[in-house]
Q: What sequence folds into this?
């Protein structure tokens, strides 16, 4: 856990104060309690939303992005977005003055990048002419280019029939009805909905539903929900089956989300 509380006390917690600093990269450290919601807003700089602990759900451009610990969301400048906190979130937000617009994606944060971000957060807000801080920022930029992109986005469709089906699944991730059954309830054929899934979601409904289930599970685990209960709430028949699928997808054990609370 980051223990630089005294240094953080002298920092502004207002994101606006980080947008016009002279250096190309700045870190805002902030802590949010479970359930806190940040209303839709945007920033002048590219942003890397990163949390040492807790899970964030970021909503932007008709898509939800799930950001668990040791993962980060890279977001372009002026992209409007809102954030929901699940579990206690120790956020370290990077504001980056980039020469090219960032692509919105969730990144894996390796241990080296994590420590670099924590180290830069210990430096003054304005660290221009501070050789150590500038070198740390340069290393962060290099490491960001090497990060793996993860499938943690949940897009929403525009078609009202497919949207009705998707919202039904989001309201109850444990829903196990077949694709044909779900399609029948929308008044559209399974063939039509399958085509819409590929066109508007960029994936099959099965893949989309799996993402929704994992997202719901992450949010439950971040609040301390037992793995067995989280697995059942997300449509898995056993904790073992859920844990196996979770590790395969994210290279992360469900218990690791609980241990980072």
A:
């Amino acid at each position: 856990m980051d223990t630089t509380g005294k240094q953080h006390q002298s920092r502004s917690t207002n994101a606006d104060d980080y947008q016009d600093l002279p250096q190309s990269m700045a870190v805002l450290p902030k802590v949010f309690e479970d359930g806190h919601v940040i209303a839709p807003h945007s920033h002048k700089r590219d942003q890397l939303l990163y949390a040492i602990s807790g899970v964030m759900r970021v909503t932007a451009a008709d898509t939800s992005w799930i950001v668990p610990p040791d993962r980060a969301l890279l977001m372009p400048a002026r992209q409007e977005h809102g954030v929901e906190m699940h579990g206690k979130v120790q956020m370290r937000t990077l504001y980056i003055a980039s020469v090219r617009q960032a692509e919105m994606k969730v990144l894996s944060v390796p241990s080296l990048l994590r420590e670099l971000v924590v180290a830069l957060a210990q430096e003054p807000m304005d660290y221009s002419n501070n050789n150590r801080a500038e070198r740390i920022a340069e290393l962060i930029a290099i490491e960001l280019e090497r990060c793996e992109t993860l499938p943690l986005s949940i897009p929403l469709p525009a078609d009202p029939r497919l949207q009705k089906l998707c919202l039904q699944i989001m309201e109850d991730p444990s829903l196990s009805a077949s694709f044909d059954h779900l399609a029948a309830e929308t008044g559209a054929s399974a063939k039509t909905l399958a085509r819409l899934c590929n066109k508007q979601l960029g994936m099959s409904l099965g893949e989309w539903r799996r993402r929704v289930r994992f997202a719901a599970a992450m949010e439950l685990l971040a609040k301390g929900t037992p793995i067995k209960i989280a697995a059942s709430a997300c449509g898995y028949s056993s904790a073992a089956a859920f844990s196996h699928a979770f590790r395969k997808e994210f290279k992360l054990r469900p218990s690791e989300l609980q241990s980072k609370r």
Notes: The chain is about 40% helix and 25% strand. The longest strand covers residues 81-96. The beta strands are 25-32, 37-41, 46-60, 63-67, 71-75, 81-96, 105-108, 149-150, 153-155. Confidence is low (pLDDT under 50) at residues 1-9.
